[in-house]
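Ticket reopened. Same input as before:
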Amino acid sequence: MKDFPLISPCDYTLKHYVGFIQLFINNEEHEYPIEIKLDDPSNIKTATIYSEKLSNLLEDNKKIISQMLQNSSDLNTFLIDLKDLLEKKEILLSSKKYPLKYISKMIKEFDEIGWDKISNLKSDLHSLTLNINDSYNRNHKLDLIFPYNYNTEVIQIKADIPEKIDNKYFINELSKIVDFYKNIFDKYNNFWSQLEEIDKKTWVIEPLNPPRSSNYRRIIIEKKCSINIQVNPNNPRSFPIYQFMGSDDLVQKWTMILINKQHQWNINISIYENLKKILNIEFPQKEKMSLSDISDACGICYSHYLTIEKDDKLEKLLPDKQCKNVKCSQPYHYKCIFEWLRSLTTTKKSFNYLYGKCPYCEEMITLPIN
Amino acid sequence: MDTVTKRLIKEIKNIQNSPNEQIPELHPISDDDLLEWKAVILGQEDSYYKGGRFELAISVPKTYPIQPPKIRFVTKICHPNVHFKTGEICLDLLKTEWSPAWTLQSACMAICVLLTQPEPSSPLNCDAANLLRCGDELGYKSLIQMYVNMYAKQQ
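Engineering reply: fixed in the latest deploy. New output:
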């Protein structure tokens, strides 16, 4: 054949071709045995391609290849297209492999830090999870992704901590990564013990199963009222940013109490102790009540928790919007009420706000557009 | 689980906890598909539909409760606001006045009320509406009761 001297027909029927296809990959020439069968020699669309060595590639790109067959006028032009495709795919595949030297270096590093710290190791060494214990007996997980072009890119590290660490100038050595993060984990000990005490002794309704990176807690105060506190990771015992949520009169009552007694905040005792002293309450425990005693479900989806996707993670959110009408005060999830207001023709939009009627009492609801 | 399913499961529970005697049946047709419902409503004692038993087909959209359910009569009924052939219902709550505060049960109750309080000014069945608008109470009553006897008699 014109552009493929190594491929020739088996006989005069021109129904069967055998030979080699040459692929240039990383400046090296490779020859792969290939076989082409045609049901109708004049019609390229009836062709089938066989190659044992390329079978994975052919299988993965089945769709594109059959499309190429449909669009080609003769066997020669089809083989040019096929060669092009296979070369591109092969290069992509070979770039996703580590050379032996790199692999042995990594294995040495694994030995150094200890294999007991390593889990979820991908068979091609592309990613793994490191289990690190800090000095206070907390177990932490570090997700590591090793870049394929390790010469120019750094290891990507995902840690569950309340700050973002830029590891651009970071050394690509596992033992140093472990030491570095151990220090960071120890630094946040005080912050985490504050939150752990809250998680243990109060009823946290949001976030459920909080990750270590989360710095806020929504705690039940009494029926129909909760407080959302946001703890400063670098100064965890300081007075937190707070917001009461629930029915209007209770929110007003508790906000007044907290404002008037703010000066009593004592940074020598924990957040939990401070809140307990200042609000002068026993925090309700989860075991004694159910969620429907404490707060109403969303008036649209009828659920307490709405699962939404945020940064590739699923989060469960409680209703965070409430009708301002005191007699109604129906709670809604932001997303639910947003969908409803957006579907209404009577809803007005101005700057970044929606103004529309509450589905229950027709009071105006103002909603920022995120 | 998607939001429609969650909400419908809650509604089923509420219906089981507080059934309405006007609506002896209100449930999904099969357990596999919660979006298709069957309902049966009874004609009220003080109305011309007394003794009638009417089947409704409810089709819940995936966007429920943002969008209203589609409800139509399966049992033939003569009513100014119901299409005689298709069973389509003209009721503002199922169209422009819908709000998520309504449920399938309350929508069925609204249809029960519509039976006793027709709106002849927006008719789907002009013959019935005209009788009512002309003030032919006797003709209107006889026509309705004839159809109740023909199609909607309780066994």
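The domain at 3-151 of chain B is CATH 3.10.110.10 (Ubiquitin Conjugating Enzyme). Helices of chain B lie at 3-17, 104-116, 126-133, 137-151. Please confirm and we'll close it.
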